[in-house]
Structures are given as structure tokens and as C-alpha cells.
Write a structure and sequence with these properties.
Keywords: Hydrolase, Magnesium. The chain has about 425 residues and is α/β, with parallel strands linked by helices. The protein contains eleven helices and 18 strands. It folds into three domains: about 170 residues, HAD superfamily/HAD-like (Rossmann fold); about 70 residues, Alpha-Beta Complex (Hypothetical Protein Ta0175, Chain: A, domain 2), CATH 3.90.1070.10; about 150 residues, Roll (Nuclear Transport Factor 2, Chain: A). The strands form three sheets. An eight-stranded mixed sheet has the order 5-4-3-2-1-10-11-12, with helices on both faces. A six-stranded mixed sheet has the order 14-13-18-17-16-15. Strands 6-7-9-8 form a four-stranded antiparallel sheet, with helices on one face. It is elongated, with a radius of gyration of 24 Å. The two termini are about 30 Å apart. The relative contact order is 0.12.
Length: about 425
């Protein structure tokens, strides 16, 4: 990744459904806990990679449904597509590699002879992936016979069964594990091999991730039978692969702590901002803490106290300015005063605030420019804005932390708020 000039401190490579994203958690708490941990402690010098069986279409759909961060790299369609950055630029070298001994037309022709196979939706059929549903009791026999037939036709393919129903046919060189190995080889050639890599998964198509040498692995507590069976047969004595006791993203956080890969306490598990400051004088941590406080204030999860507001005012520069996404300017201190009237206005409601892509840059001896996207979700409505904050810290020994000098927000395309009066910071 061009964003990092040297090796990533940590690279997390995570499956999405039932690993990073818990579809049985309507509040998305484990995902939001991970988000806060990543943005506060890792984003600026680490890499986040999503590795999913979803096609680009279904991946983008999931991003609209869940409060997901923006990854640095996206591996989709069971390791057959690799893209980079916000623009999701494809890796053409990976495409050329997968074209070897692969003919999608032959795969389609041979699979049409199996009544046991039901073709998945058109969005899930990709240049290097043909996907079906198959009943669990028929899966192994279909895999065996189909593999033999395709081999006779001169193809070198891989057939992956996962989730108790999904059967994917890929080029032999494809798959989540091979995509990860390709990335690691690429980073090594650039002299940017990550210091540590953590692979995270829950199903059969994640097994390959844990077979890459020197990679730590976590199977979340809700891992499916086929992955647990693979582990028992192939990696039960590997101390670098653990079966977490926590579900989904909480299991990923648990693994970070278990392997001592870095800080593993999410800011969402810390509740004392702004009454007392932790000894973490980091601009990214400051941003995450502040917006968590705003969420808790509106959900009435912190005390409605004048002392708390006074402490917030103490963080604001006397001449600090906030520019609202609508273009309206007001002083930061006036914004704090406005918080009084919205205390508890989201109490008992599904209201969450999170930040994404928090990237600080030091622009002076005591000044930081921090850019990020700030999101609010209330029920089904979601609003987002690009945010720029200037923070100052004249004396690092002073315990009060950073001073907020300037905040400027603009609506992200298509997600602006209709009611500007409800938007705070």
C-alpha cells in the first residue's frame, strides 16, 4: 500500500459474514468495539484487509447495512479478486495469474450435468468463480466427481465447500489463502512485509488463511463445523492459531490481546472521557474518544453534568471554530453549549456514532491535522461527512490532553442529513 512508507505494524485479514460482522447482533456492538480500537490505535500505521466470499455487489450492499470501516485492501469472491483503497483499484497481476489453466465456459458446461447443483444469483458468478448451492449430504460426492471431470478437461481447479451449503469453483491458484500469500510476497518484494499478520475466519473457505506460514490466526467462537474439523485435522498443535471464546469481532479483539500484537482495549470499553484523561496522548485516540462521548451523551449513557460540559469546553480553543456541513460557522464553545438541549434525545433508540479512516498528520511542533469520515446512524437512517480537525498540544506533560482548534465538515455524497439542526460536530 502506497499509504504506508514502511512495513505495517499489524495487518489484519478478516472474513466478513459471521467473523467481522455478527448478523445476530442487532446493535453491532462487537463490530463497533473493533472499529473504535482500530481507528484509535492502528489505522495510521497498520493495514486492514477484508477477505470475503461476497462478490463486489454483495460486499457493497453489506457496507450499506452495517457500520463497517473502509479497508485498505479488499479480497472478494473467495480470493479471486483483489482491490486497493477507496477506489477499489483491481490488481491486474492477480488476474493474469488466475487465468492460467482456467476456462469458465468448460466449468459451466460440466456443472450443468449435476442436478444436485443450484446456481447462485448472477451477482455471485464472477470471471474466476462459479458458485452453487448444494445439500450438505451431497457435497463431498459432488466435489469428488466434478473435480475428476474438470481435470480430464485440462483444467486445474479448486472446489471449496463452506457454510453448509455453498460450493465455489475457482482456479487452483485462487482462494483466500493464496490471495493472502500473494499479498505477502508482494509486500516482501517492496520491502514492506508487515511485522505481524492476523487472519480471522469462521467457515471452510477461511481455512487456507490459517495455513500461511508466520501468520497468526483466530477462529471466532461461532466458527462453523467444517472449519473446526479442518483445524482438528491440520492445525490443532499450531500455537499460532486459536479458537476464541468470543463471537465475531470480539474474538478478533481477543486474539490481538492473546498474541500480544498491540493494544486490545477498545475505547468503547472506557467510559471516563472527558472527566479524566488516559495516558494516551494520541490525536487518533482523541478523535475516537470525543465522538464516543457524543454518542453516549445523546443516548443518556453518561451523567448530564455541568462539570462534564465544562471539561469539554476546556478542550476547545477560546477562538476555535466549527464549520457545519451546511456551511454555517459557529464557535466551538457555542457548540458545546448546544449539547445541553440534545442530552438523551436518542435514549432507547438505535443510535450510533463511529469514525472511519482517522489519519493524523503532524503539521507543526505542537499541531496535528486529522482527517476522517464521521458517521451517525439512527434506526435505518445513516448520515456521513468528511471531517478535518486541527488539534494542538503545547505541552505534552500537561495532563488535560489536546486542544481542539478547528473543525470543518462537508457531507459525503448521497448521505447528507435532511435536518441540519440535528447534526452536532
Amino acid at each position: 500500500m502506497d499509504r504506508l512508507k514502511s512495513s505495517a505494524r499489524l495487518m489484519i485479514v478478516s472474513d466478513l459474514d459471521h467473523t467481522m460482522v455478527d448478523h445476530h447482533d442487532p446493535e453491532n456492538l462487537s463490530l463497533l468495539r473493533f472499529n473504535a480500537l482500530w481507528e484509535a490505535n492502528y489505522r495510521y500505521d497498520s493495514l486492514l484487509v477484508f477477505s470475503t466470499g461476497r462478490s463486489p455487489t454483495l460486499y457493497k450492499q453489506l457496507r450499506k447495512e452495517k457500520p463497517m470501516l473502509t479497508p485498505d485492501i479488499t479480497i472478494m469472491s473467495v480470493g479471486t479478486e483483489i482491490t486497493y483503497g477507496n477506489s477499489m483499484m483491481p490488481d491486474n497481476g492477480w488476474v493474469e495469474f488466475l487465468n492460467q489453466k482456467w476456462d469458465r465456459n468448460i466449468v459451466t458446461e460440466e456443472t450443468s450435468k449435476f442436478n444436485e447443483l443450484t446456481l447462485q444469483s448472477e451477482t455471485e458468478q464472477r470471471p474466476h468463480k462459479v458458485s452453487f448451492y448444494v445439500q450438505k449430504d451431497k457435497a463431498q460426492e459432488v466435489k469428488k466427481v466434478l473435480s475428476e471431470r474438470l481435470e480430464k478437461r485440462g483444467l486445474d481447479v479448486k472446489i471449496i465447500y463452506s457454510g453448509g451449503m455453498d460450493l465455489d469453483i475457482l482456479p487452483q491458484g485462487a482462494g483466500k489463502g493464496q490471495a493472502l500469500a500473494y499479498l505477502l510476497k508482494k509486500f516482501k518484494a517492496e520491502g514492506k512485509l508487515p511485522n505481524n499478520t492476523l487472519a480471522c475466519g469462521d467457515s471452510g473457505n477461511d481455512a487456507e488463511l490459517f495455513s500461511i506460514p508466520e501468520v497468526y490466526g483466530v477462529m471466532v467462537s461461532n466458527a462453523q463445523e467444517e472449519l473446526l474439523q479442518w483445524h482438528a485435522e491440520n492445525a490443532k498443535d499450531n500455537p499460532k492459531v486459536i479458537h476464541a471464546t468470543e463471537r465475531c469481532a470480539a474474538g478478533i479483539i481477543q486474539a490481538i490481546g492473546h498474541f500480544k500484537l498491540g493494544r486490545s482495549t477498545s475505547p468503547r470499553d472506557v467510559t471516563d472521557f472527558p472527566d479524566s484523561k488516559l495516558e494516551i496522548l494520541d490525536p487518533a485516540y482523541e478523535i475516537v474518544e470525543f465522538y464516543l462521548f457524543l454518542e453516549r451523551w445523546r443516548r443518556a449513557e453518561v451523567e448530564n453534568s455541568e462539570l462534564g460540559l465544562a471539561n469539554l469546553k476546556a478542550l476547545c480553543h477560546p477562538s476555535g471554530v466549527f464549520i457545519h456541513p451546511s456551511g454555517v460557522e459557529q464557535s466551538l464553545c457555542d457548540c458545546i453549549n448546544l449539547l445541553r438541549r440534545c442530552y438523551g434525545d436518542k435514549q432507547g433508540k438505535q443510535f450510533r456514532v463511529w469514525v472511519d479512516q482517522v489519519l493524523p498528520a503532524q503539521i507543526g511542533s505542537d499541531t496535528w491535522l486529522v482527517k476522517f469520515n464521521k458517521w451517525e446512524q439512527s434506526g435505518e437512517e445513516r448520515h456521513g461527512c468528511m471531517t478535518t480537525v486541527i488539534l494542538s498540544k503545547e505541552d505534552a506533560s500537561v495532563s488535560k490532553g489536546f486542544t481542539w482548534v478547528h473543525v470543518h465538515q462537508t457531507w459525503l455524497d448521497g448521505v447528507g442529513s435532511k435536518d441540519h439542526t440535528t447534526w452536532l460536530f
